[in-house]
Design brief:
5-stranded mixed β-sheet, 4-stranded antiparallel β-sheet
Length: about 450
Amino acid sequence: MESDIPKGYYWAAVEPDGVAYAYKEMPYLSDDYNTWEPEEGSDYIKLEKKFDASNWKRSLITSHKNCKVFFENPTSDDIPEGYNYIAVSRYGRIYAFIQKPLIKEDYWKKTGNEPFRSVGIHLGEFDWKNSLVSRQLDKKILTVEDIPQGYNYAAVDEDGIAYAFKTIPELNRNDACWYPTDEENSLLRVGEDFDATNWTTSLVEKKTLKKLTVEDITEGYDWATVDSNGFAYAHQTKPIITANGEWKSRFRIFISSGFDSSNWEHSLIMRKELEEYQEGFEGEEHNDTKPEEINDSTGKKKLTVDHIPKGFNYAVVNANGTAFAYEEKPTQVMHGWIGLGETMFIDYDFDTANWENSLIQKEVKEPIEKSMNESEPVFLENCTFNFTQEANCKADTDDDEELEIKYTSDLGLDRTESGFFVLKTEGWSISDERDIKRLLDRIKLLMSIHNNK
């Protein structure tokens, strides 16, 4: 039925009589469960064909790319190619991960720096903490947890046997193995039967995580934070914590990776000069921020339009008292709200007495009619970076080596906060994995400058 959804519409569902409708925004079942109802003010049209209505309550589909509607828990068959795990979030969003994610308070936290992606939404009943499903892997994947105490690195040889090393080992393609580089030639057999599909890039490192300090704040910036993935950023204005494990501000710049993210939600620091400046105003009436409105009967904060951050249009309170802002109008599900656009965490401990009706909208100004010469919005979809270097001394040709790195995302770079890398080369020599990391960090820095414009 997806092919029957007209252009400009993104959802479709079948009614009890077999008649189907297409919607611009996600519809929902009526209170009496007798029909699909559109969002108030949302456009919808009747489709010409009739469809099987035997299971009409589960007929909702979407044409959104990389988004599937689930009414049952996902299985290993739903895991996208290139990913190994799938899980349902507390609010019904379904994500795929490369490495096994961990439960962090009320969300799934990815491990490692590999990307994760949204797969769809769950509209049925689910237990999110027990929703994790893994792909059936034939071989073990070498991880940091496999590195024994007293060793700092581990890698898999071509035969699937893994060894641990005290210093960065040397890759030897001719012998199809990794060699120790310290004076004692220290190595320890970790085990066998590991996945050797990509053995030349199997090196893992037991990292000593850095603590974020004031000295890490980039010149010209006043604040710094660590995201849930260990990436640190500097901010020109005080940032706000978001629901997807990041700190967000209008102007931010990448500092470095490898920071301790065990308590990332409380990682915000400021320059000492700014702290002293703010302390100098203690006791003075210099804050123009409106005071919080409190529900007298519950003692909890009330959600108001003043809580909606710049760039967002809606805000809601979930059943657990957390409040989120949305760029697009969200939809109510079992214990909260979900939306497909940009989402930002506002704060905890809001009044939940009437959370089902907590949706508020920022005042929308009437659009100004465009002139004939005004262009449509232009979005950056992806960026491609080309690198060259001299060929290694054992190469069969004197031609320079070329490496193409494409930075992209499922929805386009201007529509998301982050992306992933696609590498393409016929041959690119490196001394160790840090050579590639430096190129990726360089691209991240350039993209952070673009994002802050």
